[in-house]
Design brief:
Its main location: cytoplasm. The chain has 455 residues and is an alpha/beta fold. 33% of the residues lie in helices and 9% in strands. It is built from 15 helices and eight strands. A four-stranded mixed beta sheet has the order 3-6-1-5. A two-stranded parallel sheet has the order 2-4. The protein has a two-stranded parallel ribbon with strand order 7-8. α4 crosses α9 (285-303) and α12 packs across α13. Bound molecules: adenosine-5'-triphosphate (ATP).
Length: 455
């Protein structure tokens, strides 16, 4: 593009005075103004956030646009005494379009329009700055007239907002890439790994979102052929832990490290954090972090327009709901202990109390769990439930596990070890016990078929 000159980096700040917000001007210290002067004119033009390749040039007297808050991607420059030297004052919408937040550095260069810099076409899209619930109407005829008046003789050049090259294609057609049957997986990968990258950095930083840094794809050997145009990179700094990670995240395609604070999140009114916490039994701190990140990825994904990824996202609309948390809890499974789902699966149709004896056994078993909780003298309590097949032993034990509220509950079943060698089975059982000792309160359910192995 012609007409650019060398520029500088400035620190983004707010418009110096709220009454100036609607002027659509950018503000700088008077001492800086001269560096943006267009030779031979009384104008000062600046090209802001050059990397985005977006700019609009307007003349001073037309900039005060009161009818609607239409904001262009770059702004005319004016000087204001209260702006610190080296700072550029932008209003919230200018910052959003330039994809910056207060305190960010931004490239600002003088722009001198070339002689043949004429407008050929201008497309305007009208949108309310804040989406309210009440209906508001705009008189289209008045608006059109207003725009015509305001923009008469203006020079405007605006390119479509460019997003990362990665998303230049509006549609992700996997089959055209020779990959079939993996739409769900790619949907997950997009939601977890890329959705946050589509958002402007100031939105992600405000929400405390860190990008997913690692991704592990796995599958049977044939899958490698099917994914021959996908590059897989696995990294670990704890090689000894790798097997553990694979075992514990078998349902996941992404292994994520990073931090996020719940405080930063906008949560929906329907979301009960205590309810979410109650459902995250057995989760370690790192796993909870993964759950929160996964929940956020659902909330972000909802806001993205996959047809047009460069469309600005209203950060106010990004709300994490209870459903997001529930989906996240299904996606991120705890490495240790059994999930509530596993226990519930052992008593799928609930529990029917079919007599005094049944109630008595349940009460006795619960008492044993209580004994482990309160008595220092009984660190280990064992109990054998005996009865014919289908009499409800597993259902009873899982009910006790749920009611005991122990942080570590693990089911050791023959089904989970099908196909494993004897030595691997033994190693797994040893590990279950080792992990149990790490937890302050542990409840192990050893199902029939595994008892002999304990010896
Ligand atoms: N009190 C109950 N109320 C409702 N359903 C029950 C009850 N007890 C057991 N069931 C159901 O009966 C079925 C068999 O129960 P369960 O698997 O607990 O038996 P089990 O004694 O462990 O059998 P096995 O010795 O073959 O492992 C399950 O579907 C379970 O949900």
């Amino acid at each position: 593009m012609s007409g650019r000159s060398s520029g500088s980096t400035m620190i983004v700040g707010s418009t110096p005075n709220p009454s100036l917000v609607a002027t659509n001007l950018a503000y700088c210290n008077p001492s800086h103004l001269q560096s943006f002067a267009v030779p031979g004119t009384s104008h000062h033009y600046a090209l802001i956030a050059e990397a985005l390749d977006l700019f609009v040039i307007t003349k001073l007297y037309m900039l005060i646009f009161q009818f609607v808050h239409i904001c262009f991607l770059n702004s005319y420059y004016t000087a204001h005494d209260s702006m610190e030297n080296g700072k550029i004052g932008l209003n919230a919408i200018q910052r959003r379009h330039a994809r910056v937040s207060n305190g960010d550095s931004i490239s600002v260069i003088r722009f001198a329009p070339p002689d043949d810099f004429n407008r050929t076409m201008l497309t305007l899209e009208l949108e309310f700055v804040k989406k309210g619930t009440k209906e508001e109407y705009v008189d289209a005829v008045r608006l059109a007239q207003h725009i015509q008046d305001r923009f008469a003789n203006q020079i405007t050049n605006q390119r479509e907002g460019a997003s990362s090259n990665l998303f230049k294609h509006k549609e992700f057609n996997l089959e055209s890439l020779g990959i079939g049957g993996l739409s769900d997986e790619f949907g997950d990968i997009f939601r977890r790994a890329f959705a946050s990258r589509v958002l402007p950095p100031h939105v992600t930083s405000k929400l405390g979102i860190k990008h997913v840094k690692g991704m592990l794809l796995y599958g049977p050997p044939d899958g490698v052929e099917a994914l021959n145009n996908v590059l897989l990179i696995g990294m670990t700094n704890r090689k000894d832990m790798l097997d553990e990670a694979l075992l514990s995240y078998l349902m996941l395609h992404l292994h994520i490290f990073g931090g996020i604070l719940l405080d930063h999140l906008s949560v929906n009114k329907g979301l009960s954090l205590s309810n979410a916490a109650a459902r995250s039994k057995n989760y370690s701190g790192a796993e909870l972090e993964g759950v929160v990140k996964s929940a956020v990825s659902y909330a972000l994904h909802r806001q993205l327009n996959l047809e047009y990824l460069s469309e600005p996202v209203d950060e106010e609309d990004i709300k994490v709901t209870m459903d997001d948390f529930l989906n996240a809890l299904h996606e991120i499974l705890p490495a240790f202990g059994a999930s509530m789902d596993d226990l519930e699966r052992c008593r799928l149709n609930g529990i029917v109390e079919f007599g005094g004896r049944h109630a008595h056994i349940f009460k006795r078993t619960m008492l044993l769990a209580e004994q482990v909780k309160v008595s220092r003298g009984s660190p280990l309590v064992t109990c054998l439930l005996e009865g014919p097949s289908g009499s409800g032993k597993t259902a009873m034990a899982s009910s006790v596990g749920i009611s005991s509220d122990f942080p570590y509950v693990k089911i050791v079943s023959a089904e989970s070890m099908i196909g494993l060698s004897e030595s691997t089975k033994c190693a797994q059982i040893v590990k279950v016990f080792e992990d149990a000792y790490k937890s302050p309160l542990s409840y192990l359910m050893i199902l029939k078929g595994c008892l002999n192995m304990l010896q």
